[in-house]
Batch of 4 targets.
Target 1
Amino acid sequence: MRSRITQDAACWVIGLLALIFLVVMHLALPNTGGSGADLPQALLVWTTLLVLITGGAWILCHQRLQLTLCARLLAIAAVLLTLPLLWSPHPDWQLDALPRLAGLWAGLGFYLLLINCHFTDRQKQVMLWLIVTAALIQTVWSLAGMWCPSLLPEVAQNALRLNPGIGVGVFQQRNVTASFIATGAALLLWLLADSQYRLANPVRERLRQGAISAAIVVLYMTLTLIASRTGWLGGLLIWLWFTVVYWRKESSEEISSRGWVRLAPALGIGLGALLLKSGLLEALNAHDTSTADRIFILQQTWQMIKEHPLTGWGYGGFTWSFAHFLADRPVPLSRGMNALTHPHNELLFWWVEGGIVALAGTVLAMIAGGVLLLRQPRRYTLAVLGCLLPVLLHTQLEYPLYQSPVHWLLVMLLLSFADTPAADPSASRSVFKTSRFRLLPTLMAALACSGALLVAVTFWQGRYLTKFQASPEDYAGRVLTLTETGIGTERLRKDQVLSYIVRYQKSGNVEDLQQFSTLARRWLTTWTDADIYHNLINVEHYLGNEKLALQVADEAHRLYPEDPRFVL
């Protein structure tokens, strides 16, 4: 029997998840593009998720938390992934890495909360349908963007105008949208194929199967039209996965549902191919350039790893390190990758920045998931793994967990479905041996509450950064008064640097240029930007710092050899 405390925590979690999946993640707010902390809707999702953790942990403060084997392994992995922060060589690099590590620990806290809520099968099904509904909303959003953009909010229309064919969905990135829709399709295949979700009433069951099959057709059609290779691979993989996992028919009633598992995706793909403006082969060929770029990125990242395999290059420094790794050669090699924030492979990302310790943490996290899902494989755990495949695949091709907090939430939520400790804390038998702590939920609540406040402040300050981009003269002074929260530091510092230029143009105060010079040089020790280099060179010349101006110009020329502004 579940305690009243556990029931209250479960209801709180489901209520806040409904708010995220049905409302918050779909809000289109004014922004200047980008992903992750650059998008205000992502910050709102994080704020809501941290409020969820705060409330849930506070409710559970009156009882001890249970830690499963998987949770323990994930906690050890999180510690290993955090340790390299200690030897990152630059304080600003460490600051830039903090949000990533904070998100890692927030995800672990969310996972601990989920496994201690002891959700009923009915509640788990409700959460599955919440995810499916969110995927369907994004499907309609994507189709509207392709066929009738005027139906979308003005913010979404602007994203599509800035990035035609790419700024799809509320995520404003077609691959992120595609992997989310593919996850929704995986859940529908599971709900259709598994007999535990069947209705007793035959008529209602046929209607349920028909509605799910139609939704699968629409989702696969949308995946085809989005023309995302990540979405295509994810969709094909889950189609094959659920076809194999649910191949054997247990009863004659399942013939229809299992048949639709095989047929509905094919119908969706065929319909999408017919509606494509270009053929499938042409859509594939359109990605040739990006494929070559990704191979190049992976090759160069591997070369970086071979130079520092044990210690890594330093947390938070990938952008600067990768750009200078290409530039500091006898013949500088740029290829327009001077602002790359991620090597498009999650395993390599942790390794290149954190060295062997971070690699060990990443491998241990994979082992934890493997032990949970594959140690005693059964259809339920294999189905959970199938639903995780689109996002897991995406992490090896790009960086969705940083572009979208919803994707990180999905991983933790679905993984927790397969990891349920004993519902009765006094029970002597459980799948995994458990430990119990009373202090842990209190600490979780305090940290999550603090995190929610920081993210909320970042969201509030972000409005002024967006306004500054549109009207620098009106908001430069306000931007200079904003306080760093540790989140979105790159954008805030850059806009503050530029604000000194704007203020100088109005005041003529040379001290503003001196401040610009100091802060711009500091900014360029962590990130790269051709315009910042150009402005800094001009300012140093104006201030009479010719030697420093030549040094900056030389560095800019190596980073941007094809930019005429930096020809020596």
Target 2
Amino acid sequence: MKVTHIPFEKTGFFSKTMIHYLEQNKDIQPFYNNFPDISGFHNQIEEKQKSFRLQARLVLVDVLKNQYKDFNTSEKTEENIRLLKQKNTFTITTGHQLNLFTGPLYFLYKIISTINLCEELSEKFPKENFVPVYWMATEDHDFEEVNYFNFNGKKVQWNREDGGAVGRFSTDGLQDVFEVFSSHLGTSKNAIFIKKLFSEAYLKHQNLAEATRFIANELFKDFGLVVLDGDDTDLKQLFTPIVKDELENETSFKSVSKTILELEKNYKIQVNPREINLFYLGDDFRERIIFEDGVYRVNNTEITFTKAEILKEVEENPKVFSPNVIMRPLYQEVILPNLCYLGGGGEMAYWLELKDYFKKVEVPFPILLLRNSVQVISEKQANKLNKLNVSLEEIFLNQYDLLSKKVVENSDIQVNFDEKIKYLENQFSELKEVAKQTDVSFENAVNAQERKQIKGLQNLQKRLLKAEKKRQRGLVNRITQLQNEILPNQSLEERQRNFSEHYLEYGSSFIRALKGALKPLQLEFTVLEL
């Protein structure tokens, strides 16, 4: 195993928002609290310890014990749940949708990053305990985002009726999916493990939440991972003051809208708030709550409430109030003694809209940490890259730029068009000074001639490059094929492939390799050669 770290910026796959965050650029500093370094964690521990109530800890532990009662988990996870009662115990949290069979590869990277960060913090702060938490997005209702995964370039899909929170979906019908998937796996030891994991998860558990908990527990219980389902009455009860405030005052809309006015001056806005950022959750629906003409209405239903009625509903039936993408982070921070959230670039971008909202409702804003991203390179692929003289950084170049660079490097014709264009610009610079002393028509003629000659050189450069690519067709084809293999659909493989592809090849050593390679506070992209 060989591990190489590359700056996120060099991959070309991360936004300006994320690059500025990692650089602690002055433009983005107003939108986060503590930065993910040891000093930041020291400050965050002090803030959270002062604000988090013992009652919330007791409720959390009781809920977790109940959620785990039918699961065979590890002593490490059970100990972590018990430790949550203590005021010197804190969580590090990541979250993910309930994608079928975990969905894209980065599911693993999120969780292993979270586990490794807890271990690193335990060394830096020996008087505190740190518990890794996976927050299951059980209340999401976009089934089309989670009903499939990719395996060897093909989509394995679960077709069923949509409606309501996905965590409550029955696993009926997944026997057919299992039979299709297992037919592609073979009979190796690793294939047998994958088949067993899938079948025991989806064919022996009643709903998607339980099935996903089983998978996460089986893969990570030895590291003490705690899996939490927020779709719970007792946990929602802790959140009722915030829910009431939202219904009466539209606090999140006002705070986040104000933040967006400043954030959008330099960065792309990830999500926009609604006037009320809550859904109403039924058995088979999850619909927005809308306030119109003095009445609270549940969208696409006949359900309505007066103000008094809906506040009473919050007290008597808190579980039906489901926070959307704007309020879910706050719900998490209210019910967990959490220090840090690990997520992808899109998640980080919407969290950056929320700091002022947290301040308004007097909840500490957590540290935000861009999760580890990983590119797995096989030994065979590494040898090919070496023979083609393509570096690990270069493999992330746009394909046209990569091919152009390698064709030029491999060419016997050494013509530096960039130098010639620069020389031409210098020559015309002198002419422009002369032209300024004459009339405007001569100055315009000089400018037009400069553009024409530079464009001519650029066209010659393109034609030479095209001719060289044709002459070096073998090299071009080998590089193209290899890059397409490493970056499917010209995208990071972690967004395209399922973990089962690598597990089939490497078995449990794949997870051990990730565990040893991922350094969450290093804030760099990881290339893992296996």
Target 3
Amino acid sequence: MTMIPNRTRSIVYSNRAAAATSHPLATLVAIETLSKGGNAVDAAVAAISVQCVVEPHQTGVGGDCFALYMPRGAAEPIALSGAGRAPEAANPQYYADNNITELALDSPHSVTVPGAVAGWCRLVADHGRLPLGTLLEPAIRMARDGYVIQPVVGFDLATESALLASHPVAAGVFMPDGKPVPEGSLHRQPLLAKTLEAIAEKGHSGFYGGEIADDMVSCLRNHGGLHTMADFAAARADYVPTISSRYKGFDIVELPPSGQGLAALMMLNALDGMELSDPAVSEADRIHILAELAKLAYLHRNELFCDPDFASTPVQELLSGAWAAFARAGIDMKKAAAPTVWPEVTQRDTVYACIVDEEGNAISFINSLFHSFGSCIMAPKSGVLFHNRGAQFSLQAGHPNAIAGGKRPLHTLMPGMVMKDGACVAPFGVMGGPYQAAGHAELLSNILDRGLDVQQALDAPRSFSYRGVLEVEPRADESVLDDLRRRGHDACWAKRPIGGGQIIWKNARTGVLAAASDPRKDGCALGL
């Protein structure tokens, strides 16, 4: 048998169109949507809605979404933020007065008004070709008639289902016999099917108004939340300006804060002045460099990133050559260091899909509940499982990311896009909560520094330094871990795979698309 070195699966090549998602059914629906005359936006929304059914612990209509869309011939990508907002009654003083010292992951206070459906509706209305109802048909059918639990989803449900122990409504759906739904079994979500039907028929008002909104608001308020019908009726998705930086001759495009895409660009700017392609740079060296830059970028993220409607993030300063030089100067190759905020600046769990259609339109789309099962709170009549993105807010008065009514929290979701000479080269994304920013930098470095192809770049072992611990995916050479520990890292083998990802790379000369999907998920890439 012939094996491709350092690849877990083949790249999918196509000269027409391609799709890659974290679930095979979603990828298939994306391709089917393109075959029916839909464009990249249509295929992305159809695929993501399917993922909201078949990967229920990762994403859902009760979550948020972000997208980068590059229509063929456009001057720049269109960026959409479907970040949910805190209820108007939320503010740090309320939580202080009620002795609430943290926004617990399974608390109603961690639930912002879900923004995903607002994002779907706006994208399809402005840039889609097929009716929203047509796009949601596959998801409705799977939720109503059933879908088979795939291996990675089954594993996740088995390992994460303990989170549902104190949430009987959600447990009744995902642990119908008191046990997690196992892989290979048929599962249905009839209440969610009816909610999707309402969205298909009425769009925004079908979700953010009427009986479904009443069910969601009643559920959250019964759990102690501050949400109102007015909060849900006001839900919207916004087009936002993109931010970008140049890396190894390519323009890397991200969404601005309140997302964390800026942190990825900060890391790449620092890496751009280094030569990770040098054979003298060892595997331990590379992990050490990425760890040191991640610690620094994430410290700035936590201190400075916020909703631009409420406070400013010093984006240009953090993308400057001066910050990159500061970051590089702080790296001691012999030892790990504690990160510090650059003195020149002042305070001012997830699924993904990427698609390129036959016309050359490209989209990078991400949708999430944040942690597994989100808040674990499920509206009993509509079957909507709420995310817990609001847990990212700070309760510290005066902090840029302090909770406030109508405010969007610091967000980990970040679709990415590689551009060159004004054209889209690759829509890409990496899943994994906080890892996403470091994951973007690591994936692109794998391709542009190490010369790996798109599948090899996704397959390659990952590392992530977060909250004082450097996790490294297991590899044959255990001396790497020993080396990192000698440098002062609290390094350990990761107990579970780090993140996931998809990418479609277009050959500028031939126009051929190379699509790849991460082996850490059930998904796949397909082409027309």
Target 4
Amino acid sequence: MKNKKKSLKDKVIYQIYPMSFMDTTGNGMGDINGIISKLDYLEKLGVDLLWLTPIYNSPKNDNGYDIADYYQIDSDFGTMEDFDKLLFQAEEKGMGILMDIVANHTSTEHIWFEKALAGDKKYQDYYVFRDKEFVEAHPVTSIFGGDAWEYIENLYLYYLHNFDKTQADLDWDNDKVREETYKMMNFWLKKGVKGFRFDVIDMISKVWERCEMSNGPKLHEYIEEMANATYRNYEDTFTVGETWSADLEHAKKYSNLNNTEFSTIFTFEHTMFGPDKWSTSIDLLKLKAIFEKWQKGMHNKGWNSLFYNNHDLPRAISRFGDDREEFREVSGKGLAILLHLMEGTPYIYQGEEIGMINRPWVREEMQDVEAINYFDTAVKIEDEKEVLKNIKNISRDNARTPIQWDDSKNAGFTDGKPWIVVNESYKKINVKDALEDKNSIFYTYKELIKIRKKMELVKNGTFDLIDRESKEHFSYMREYKGEKLYVFANMTDKEIVISEMKDLKGEEIIISNYNDVIRNRKLRPYEAMAIKVKG
């Protein structure tokens, strides 16, 4: 099988969370026809692939990541005919569709699990059912909180759920489970999807002697088997694995240059600071060191994914930048320039390209099961204001508020009652205004996509940090075949001086987040620019 990495290096992915993208039926939930209605917008942005979070039949206890039928489109999103139409129209506009594969677990409403509960031993073996003795010797805490073992009284057995109790872990050591998974993937590939994003794929092989739920001994064996049975048999497919626990060595195996596993992977070290999720905050020195490690460590050995946010992470500007009104636009542009000129495949999460931000939450508004569980537990021992502050900063609900299309009712997302609250910022932050303003964040993203496609240096260059000890700026240099690209980004709300900018010769500023570029050693608040220098 040929190496496909070269053809993937200029691709840019746009992630769609369908529930919150665009509603065409008035039921308050986004749908496939809503995506179709906005294909012209996505074509204008210039992205290549559209990653859809799950649209399969699901009770939605975890917003679609609890799948009851992998072969059916959930009726809330539309029909298979709608999906076929989306595939066709996206391809007509030069965009492919990536499906989200949840292979670690199914909904407890899946027919397999229902048969397992009815006593069918064959289907009990599809899942991780264990007796009391095993469970007591292997304690596991759910990622969503509480015990990960759920007791089924009439069976005298427990089943494993690393997430919500309605999401039962599959047993990938069972050949039949793997065969059924590959059969399902080939169904979608034959339909014409261009690839997959794999949810928590590092959890399909577990280390029971240490009660570790990821990076088991057969992990890479199973992934390579899956690749050979499915997407490696199709031309120009793109795959990305979600791997929260990956270190560099695992990452290089996942995204090796021979393309035997995935095109690329998601790693999350740059999103995790602090002792736990809810008390995390950004440390610039650590952030720079993490990016340096992955940029250097993967160069010519694997392939990075470049992202700040997704459906599980808060809004990029609120997390990494400054969402105050006077700085939101320039900060958002600066973050985009900083990330998109690194090596790897960039991902744009819906609304990121217009600068959407976090919002404050109260218990009654929350939809995220993880945030609800955290609030209900933490509020008993901590100050409620601090708990709500943490939820505003980190909750997944921040990413799931509807896209703000215009300043009309419900931000133009729906004529009905939205399934989740609309962020009140839509009056000032929306697609309509962004498209009309040629200096908006949208056009910065559009220009960065163009730069990636035409500059070999961005796709293939080396990476070196500039002034790694600075707590004020994040700057680096890329180099390829005698050409250099310097990226300077002020990460503060104050003017700073960067001495390394003074000696650049024969330079060309290829992009900046200020309209009036002043070439000296000073950078204004959150100012970022990329300077090309010929050798």
